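User: Show me a protein chain along with its predicted structure.
Assistant: Here is one chain, sequence first, then structure tokens.
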Amino acid sequence: MMIRLLLIGLLTVSGTTQAVQPVNPPGLLPTEIARPLLEQDPGVAAARAGLEVALQEAGILDKSPYEWTTRVLSQQRRLENGPRYNEWNAGIERTIRLPGKAAADRNLGKATVEESQARYGEALHESARELMALWVDWLATERARELAENSLQSTQASLAAVEKRARAGDASKLDVNIARAELAEQRRMDNDAKTQASAAWSRLSTRFPGVKRQVTALPIPLPIGEDAASWRDRILEQSDEFKVAKAQMQKAQAHAERARADKIPDPTLGVYTASEIGGRERFSGVMISIPIPGGIRDLRSAKAVAAVEVSRQEVELKKRQLETGIASAVMTARGAYDSLLIANEGAAAMQENAGLMQRAYALGEAELQALLLARRQATAAMNNALQAQVTALKAYYGLLVDAHLIWDLEHDD
């Protein structure tokens, strides 16, 4: 116990340095196993497919939306009391996208791709949080199963001690029955723990097919350093949720640029040739047409500019929400770690007390009720310590996931 506390103290000193560097904490799924599980997740796969859609959309926006239009006109001229003439008119024309509009469309395409990349990263991030939580829950239930098995063995030892004293005439039949009832209760708790462990593995393996059943000891989380600003800066920098908000603002700006450029209509240019009076007259020419802009274009531009301000405020709101969540998460992880240390101290004391009561009862120096109470307190303290460990571990791993410090999440682009 003292060696563990010493190690924890050393880790506390280096906690701040590790906070901004990718880590490979013990007990967590290694990257070479976790990353394929994340990439195969349907939500991540859908976001990856969405990125391909965004790339195609950007390609469409890079091209002009206008196409060549051909016109062919055939007619017959008939003179009164005179001959008839076959005539025709043919031309080709195309609307030209002005340079400012092309630049705005390219910016819109770029922002669309960036938003889709951020959504892919966010899907990967959410899947990582779920994998982490399910993995920790499974390891925790396996540890709870071990604790229940140890409690069962201790209760069996207590029953053996009671039966030994009963044979010697130092314990009553009532004590034996109480000890057997306690054993039955522990057997029930042991069965419940096994059931919960099986259910936890079923949830994990069903949600992430292909995960290997590798039972490892539930790790001890590392303490959080004092530099909360480092966590805030790192998580904000890596936050795909924040990147989505900023990309949406860039899209709004691109739409505003496009609406502003649309105040000037795109001209249509064309050439044509015609034949009249049966081919006796031939002529050709150039045609240009420009729509006369109305007030609707100004209104659309004003609307797009107003939408930019809405998007800008949404980015600021998202930033404040993230900063609030990060500050809370850091403090929660720090407090959960302190609670874990306290819970471990209490569990160690209760375990020692239960051992002393076991020996005292065997020597006839303690009552059965005192022994059973000590066992129950030790069991409760161990389970409380386990829950404190799970809470601290999820808080610690949650920060690592949010900061993209594990599983190569920083390379989600």
